[in-house]
Amino acid sequence: MRPDFHEIEGLWERDGSLRDIYVQDMAAVHWNRFDQLLSQYIYSYSFDGVAAPFPGSHSVLGNREGVHGLSILLDGPVEICCHFFIAEQLELDISPREITSPLEHEEVLSFVENLAGALGLPAHITPENSEHTPFLTYAADSRTWCKHDNLG
Fold first, then answer.
1. In the predicted model, is pLDDT for residue 152 greater than 50?
2. Alpha-carbon span 19 to 78, nearest angstrom
3. Contact status, residue 88 vs residue 82, Cβ threshold 8 Å
4. List of residues 6+ apart from 105 with CB closer than 8 A
5. What does the buried/exposed string (b/e) look like for 4-36 if buried means 16 or more CB atoms within 10 Å of the residue's CB?
6. Average pLDDT of the residues in 113-117
7. Mind spelling out the 3-state secondary structure of the chain?
8. Which residues are registered as beta bridge partners of 94?
9. CA Rg, the chain, in Å?
10. Could you give the CA distance from residue 149 to residue 146 in angstroms, rounded to a whole number?
């Protein structure tokens, strides 16, 4: 069962920081699945700030000469951004300012469920740059959400 909009203290608090979605232990097969998942969403890609066709995650991760940006647009609208920092980890970010009601909250949780399900790996929603202190984890294998109370 998905956590309610107001259930997780601080989850969408507008504190000036972003929220991250992390998926660890990414391998080539997971990046292929991520690329396939993108076809279900509206997205845009840029290289060094210039709009371009998305060349695929493998190409992006193999080219460290510039700045890559991938924006995935959910209903609401909510924008989820991917920066392709390292090959072993998928890191996406969301601005809490965009999550103003249960509608956007549900859109994000649905995206995380789809992401974890497609990759076959757990996905964590965390404070910005806090991969080890998640608010929530979605386990694809059991299709369950886990609330964490280790923030404080």
1. no
2. 12
3. no
4. 5, 12, 99
5. ebeebeebbeeeeebbbbbbeebeeebbebbbe
6. 98
7. CCCCCCCCCCCCCCCCCCEEEEEECCCHHHHHHHHHHHCCCEEEEEECCEEECCCCHHHHHHCCCCCEEEEEEECCCEEEEECCCECCEEEEEECHHHCCCHHHHHHHHHHHHHHHHHHCCCEEEEECCCCCCCCEEEECCCCEEEECCCCC
8. 19
9. 15
10. 10
How many residues would you count in the chain?
Answer: 152
Identity of the residue numbered 13: E
Nearest CA to 73 out of 47, 116, 38 is that of: 38
Side chain identity at 40, as an amino acid letter?
Q
Average pLDDT of the chain to the nearest whole number? 95
Q: What is the pLDDT of residues 129-144, one digit of tens each?
A: 999 999 999 999 999 9
